[in-house]
Design goal:
The chain has 221 residues and is α/β, with parallel strands linked by helices. It contains 8 helices and 6 strands, in the order E-H-E-E-H-E-H-H-E-H-E-H-H-H. It has a domain at 32-179: Rossmann fold (3-Layer(aba) Sandwich).
Amino acid sequence: MADQVSVPVESLHQATDPERFRPLPGGPHHELLFVASSRKVRRRIVDDLADTKYDLAIYGRDWTPDLANGRFVKGEVVKNAELARYYSTADIVLNDHWDDMRIEGFLSNRLYDALACGAFVVSDLVDGIEDEFDGAVATYGSQPELEPLIARYLADPGERQRLADHGRSIVLERHTFDHRVQALCAVADPLARARPQGIEIVAPPASIEVDAPVESELVAS
């Protein structure tokens, strides 16, 4: 867009609420956790793990047997107030993107929320994800890469913790809603200060005549 208009353009990325999404104990433990509704279509990361030997837990609506193995589906709803506990307790939180998001480089809000909880995240590869989180998210490009990537990190809890801690610090430093508000104010405040002072507000006329509505009657034939 920046090369199509004459005004400055900056992207305003997703963000998270660190008061809600923070490390919390008490959630169910799973090796692999995916919290998302199917929207009645196939999800890439679920298909890529269709034959996994690991403890994969899927929570969300509309996961019918044709979309996911029933042994992986653990529930339909995780209340938003409890979601941080689930993210915090999982060994690996999984993330994927809808095709249109991946093509256009829009990053999922799940990344920001899970990292704020101190979770270690594995995601499909999207342009910009490395820079956004300074390499804290492990990514894969194709299905054959995913299972070995998971095996590597499940066998190395110390590295998972290092990346999870780094990801949380990056989100708290750059990607909270406060940061997005500050970015908006940085643009809006100068515009507000530049507005002409003493603008005269003209009151509307005391009365305005309008045509009366035409009433109609429906008569059954």
